């Protein structure tokens, strides 16, 4: 029967390195204060559009169908879901570290000692039973269970689990941020597609107008009231406008394919209703209070969780300087012959050992880990502070843009109306020889450009509506 109880103490606690915790850097304290302005432009309305579901915020059924499909099939989003699974598994791994490790083992072997050695001579003279000497070679058969356990006296392992949980939550918030951006990108691309369709319609209308003007110029030439130069100028203008169709068509193809890519599918036509684009009105936006960004913006929540995890990493690194207590134990059966293996109590063995270990000399690696954890904590604090600042600036910019675009659109509408009327006026003046052909051409060109600009402004209005919703943190919930 083998019985063994072993207690070992290596580098006792009194010899351990004493490490004093340093004060949190000022940037970390500042980031945790979450100092944000009290309002946007002194507005105190706490109603926030970020709370509105995306299916209610966007009322176009074609757009909603595209978003719904993207949330199911977008590759980037699906990749993020796998990152969440990885961090969730990391929690299980960290939890397992502060629980006892228990296993079973079995083994068999044979050992022949040299006769003229102390151990060989002793084995030769040992009788295992009356008239029976130790067999040669000597077998070794073992079956048993063993356990090891590190006692988490400094909460090092528990803090590692907490940090893993915070990083898991951070990846969930990262997924939410991907969802917010994905919805915004699809909506912006969809409105760009509607704008391109309307620009294509304007080009076709302008081609008809210019073709009619060309016929008038030809009649004027036949009546010797103008020259061949005027005819060629009008022909060139018609050809130039026709060529624009293909530029717009290429942009339509690329925009459709961008949407298809976001939906995780190969190129195909995008169903849409372009007829009502010019009459679309941006949704009413309620910006709420800046402090609500801390709860609504997934990127801020992600940065906050990463900061908390970084603080825990410092505690983990600091605990490396302190003694660690480990316990190991084993129990089982061992014999040189399988027939003796389960003879009790002769073949029973068990062991119990406790180890107390602490770093005493050459702690450079531990110091480096601690300094790295401290630097990463400051880095996380700066990132958290920057994310909040960026969110506020984004909202402020989009609020100003919405107001300015509204005023710009009203003025451009009046400009388009005036230039559209001027086309008929210039044609009439040209027919009565009171205006030359260049005035007609410039009027038509200005009208086309103003209509393009009006469509572009409308698109920017719709994009601003999408971007403020994204900036406020809407879409993911």
Tags for this model:
single chain; Outer membrane efflux proteins (OEP); transmembrane; five-stranded mixed sheet; RND transporter; elongated; transmembrane beta strand; 11 helices; lipoprotein; palmitate; two-stranded antiparallel sheet; 477 residues; 2 domains
Task: Write up what this structure looks like.
The protein is α+β, with helices and mostly antiparallel strands and 477 residues long. The protein has two domains: 1-16 and 100-151 and 324-357, Outer membrane efflux proteins (OEP); 34-98 and 152-322 and 368-471, Outer membrane efflux proteins (OEP) (Up-down Bundle). 60% of the residues lie in helices and 13% in strands. The protein contains eleven helices and seven strands. A five-stranded mixed β-sheet has the order 1-7-6-5-2, with no helix packed on it. A two-stranded antiparallel sheet has the order 3-4. Helix 1 (26-33) packs across helix 10 (364-431), helix 4 (75-97) runs antiparallel to helix 6 and helix 6 runs antiparallel to helix 9 (298-319). It is elongated and about 140 Å long. The two termini are 66 Å apart. Belongs to the outer membrane factor (OMF) (TC 1.B.17) family.
């Amino acid at each position: 029967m083998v019985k063994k109880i072993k207690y070992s103490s290596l580098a006792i606690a009194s010899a351990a390195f004493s490490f004093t915790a340093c004060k949190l850097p000022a940037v970390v304290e500042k980031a945790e204060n979450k100092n944000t302005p009290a309002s946007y432009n002194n507005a105190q309305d706490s109603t926030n559009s970020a709370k509105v579901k995306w299916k209610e915020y966007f009322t176009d059924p074609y757009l909603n169908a595209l978003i719904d499909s993207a949330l199911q099939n977008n590759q980037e989003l699906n990749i993020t879901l796998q990152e969440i699974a990885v961090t969730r598994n990391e929690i299980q791994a960290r939890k397992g570290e502060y629980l006892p490790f228990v296993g079973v083992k079995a083994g068999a072997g044979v050992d022949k000692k040299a006769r003229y050695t102390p151990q060989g001579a002793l084995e030769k003279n040992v009788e295992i039973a009356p008239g029976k000497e130790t067999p040669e070679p000597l077998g070794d058969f073992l079956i048993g269970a063993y356990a090891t356990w590190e006692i988490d006296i400094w909460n090092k392992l528990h803090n590692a689990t907490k940090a893993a949980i915070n990083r898991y939550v951070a990846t969930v918030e990262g997924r939410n941020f991907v969802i917010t951006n994905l919805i915004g990108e699809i909506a912006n691309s969809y409105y760009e597609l509607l704008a391109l369709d309307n620009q294509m319609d304007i080009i076709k209308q302008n081609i008809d107008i210019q073709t009619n003007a060309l016929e008038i110029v030809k009649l004027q030439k036949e009546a010797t009231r103008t020259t061949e130069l005027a005819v060629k100028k009008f022909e060139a203008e018609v050809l130039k406008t026709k060529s624009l169709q293909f530029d717009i068509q290429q942009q339509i193809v690329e925009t459709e394919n961008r949407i298809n890519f976001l939906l995780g599918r190969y190129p195909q036509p995008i169903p849409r209703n372009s007829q009502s684009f010019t009459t679309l009105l941006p949704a009413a936006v309620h910006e709420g209070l800046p402090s609500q960004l801390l709860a609504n913006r997934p990127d801020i929540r992600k940065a906050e969780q990463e900061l908390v995890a970084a603080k825990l990493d410092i505690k983990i690194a600091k605990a490396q300087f302190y003694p660690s207590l480990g316990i190991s134990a084993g129990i089982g059966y061992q014999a040189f012959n399988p027939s003796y293996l389960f003879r009790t109590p002769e073949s029973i063995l068990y062991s119990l050992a406790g180890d107390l270990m602490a770093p005493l000399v050459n702690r450079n690696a531990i110091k480096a880990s601690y300094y790295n954890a401290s630097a990463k904590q400051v880095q996380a604090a700066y990132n958290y502070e920057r994310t909040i600042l960026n969110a506020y600036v984004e909202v402020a910019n989009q609020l100003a843009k919405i107001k300015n675009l509204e005023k710009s659109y009203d003025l451009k509408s009046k400009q388009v109306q005036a230039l559209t009327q001027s086309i008929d006026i210039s044609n009439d003046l040209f027919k009565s020889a009171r205006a030359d052909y260049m005035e007609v051409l410039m009027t038509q060109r200005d009208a086309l450009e103003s209509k393009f600009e009006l469509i572009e402004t409308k698109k920017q209005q719709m994009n601003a509506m999408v971007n403020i919703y994204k900036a406020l943190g809407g879409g993911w919930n």
